[in-house]
Amino acid sequence: MIFGRSERGKPPVEPVTLKILVAGGFGVGKTTLVGAVSEIRPLRTEELLTEAGRPVDDTSGVEGKHTTTVAMDFGRITLREDLVLYLFGTPGQERFWFMWDELSEGALGAVVLADTRRLEDCFAAVDYFERRAIPFLVGVNCFEGAPRYPVEDVRQALDLDDGVPLMMCDARDRESVKEALIGVVQHAMAYAAEHRQTVTS
């Protein structure tokens, strides 16, 4: 099947479209993740880091980073012929957080990327989605040379609720990213079903 068309003799499938956010700290791999999995050329709003931003853009641990997202990254992936995900990567620096409310409008769920060298950088994203009751999954982006810890140790360090999925992933690898996105969709569906049950009982 080609996207937007169906096989001869079959009625066209109208796909369900879902919005997923990709959040986390500065330099954690959000732009890379969206680019690794998007079937369209990703829309990026990256600008070069400047000397003026040096006091507020902490590049320790990501010294090779020369650009930063100032609005959002946008990509699309078709998981099945009837299921399309729109991906919105949020800006990581605190001065752009005012955009998160706009980007999170109508989102099914989120992937919060974490880097074990700078775990504290994802606290704000975890807190944001917890406060707004938006289901999320934490994906620990396995950078070259970054220390590896057992999943339960990372969960404890992030003070995550037991119900929040946490997995190791590689933001550069399409299959790894797809697994994380499928995990978010499954978690969000289970979260919604549980919430409906609580409301009706």
Give a written overview of the molecule.
With 201 residues, the chain is an alpha/beta fold. It is built from five helices and seven strands, in the order βαβββαβαβαβα. It has helices spanning 30-37, 100-104, 123-131, 151-158, 174-200; strands at 16-24, 43-48, 67-80, 83-89, 109-114, 136-141, 166-169. It has a seven-stranded mixed beta sheet, sandwiched between helices. Strand 6, helix 4 (151-158) and strand 7 (166-169) form a beta-alpha-beta unit.
List the helices and strands and how they pair.
Blueprint: E1 16-24, H1 30-37, E2 43-48, E3 67-80, E4 83-89, H2 100-104, E5 109-114, H3 123-131, E6 136-141, H4 151-158, E7 166-169, H5 174-200
Give a quick rundown of the structure:
The chain is α/β, with parallel strands linked by helices.
By DSSP (H or I, 4+ residues per run), the number of helices equals: 5
Tell me the total number of β-strands. Answer: 7
**Unreliable parts:** 49-57
Q: What is the strand arrangement across the widest sheet? A: 2-3-4-1-5-6-7
SSE string:
EHEEEHEHEHEH
Please bin the fraction of helical residues: 25-40%
Average pLDDT score: 83
The computed structural class is alpha/beta
Alpha carbon gap, first and last residue: 42 Å
Kindly provide the radius of gyration, computed on alpha-carbon positions and rounded to a whole number of angstroms: 17 Å
Main sheet, how many strands, which sense, barrel? 7 strands, mixed
Strand content: 25-35%
Q: Based on CA inertia axes, which overall geometry fits? A: globular
